[in-house]
User: Which sequence fits this backbone?
């Protein structure tokens, strides 16, 4: 299969120095709000990449749930592959791609656990069925069948359907990514894209333009 003819031009906007704040998080929040208001599907979806014990990267889509104090928060099972890899090596990368806006944001940094209060807060804000799914799914583990999940779901659904509160599992909670590098990409005509990278040096962000 040859996809060499699959291409399009990027014509929407340009990105130049006059549009860039000192703190890259300000631009990220602005772009994220524009993505949310544009009608794009899953604007908070990000590709999260972690490192395995063999040095091989692994990637998956997770949903950004909060930005707080310059950190990006998401939630997962502590038994999942990504959690075990982050616990072993905190270096991570996150990537947002908003095709309809012809924009990308690349983030590299470190991940750390959020406090239990924050994990409780988000867990209890989730839909009832999602809380049940959190309890019954041994994330990333081998399971015998789809029926195994369905039966476990129905069993716990019956147990908790009259309960006011479903407790948060102890092996589920949040991680916060602290960015050390952030790159903003705006698609450009003739592949002359605009790319700017911010690099955190101690407490100050250094900004450079990158060739497309």
Assistant:
């Amino acid at each position: 299969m040859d996809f060499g003819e699959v291409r399009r031009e990027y014509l929407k906007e340009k990105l130049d120095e006059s549009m860039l704040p000192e703190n890259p998080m300000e631009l990220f929040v602005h772009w994220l709000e524009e993505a949310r208001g544009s009608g794009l599907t899953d604007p908070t979806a990000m590709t999260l990449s972690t490192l395995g014990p063999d040095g091989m990267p692994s990637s998956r889509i997770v949903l950004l749930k909060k930005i707080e104090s310059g950190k990006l928060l998401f939630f997962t099972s502590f038994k999942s592959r990504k959690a075990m890899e982050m616990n072993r090596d905190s270096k991570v990368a996150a990537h947002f791609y908003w095709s309809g806006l012809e924009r990308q944001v690349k983030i590299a940094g470190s991940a750390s656990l959020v406090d239990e209060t924050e994990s409780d807060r988000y867990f209890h804000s989730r839909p009832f069925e999602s809380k049940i799914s959190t309890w019954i799914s041994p994330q990333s583990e081998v399971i015998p069948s789809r029926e195994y999940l369905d039966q476990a779901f129905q069993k716990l659904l019956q147990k908790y359907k009259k309960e006011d509160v479903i407790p948060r599992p102890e092996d589920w909670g949040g991680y916060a990514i602290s960015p050390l590098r952030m790159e903003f990409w705006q698609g450009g005509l003739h592949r002359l894209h605009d790319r700017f990278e911010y690099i955190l040096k101690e407490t100050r962000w250094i900004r450079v333009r990158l060739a497309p």
The first strand starts at residue 45 and ends at 51. The beta strands are 45-51, 57-63, 66-68, 71-77, 91-98, 103-113, 172-186, 194-201, 204-210. DSSP finds five helices and nine strands in the chain. The mean pLDDT is 95.
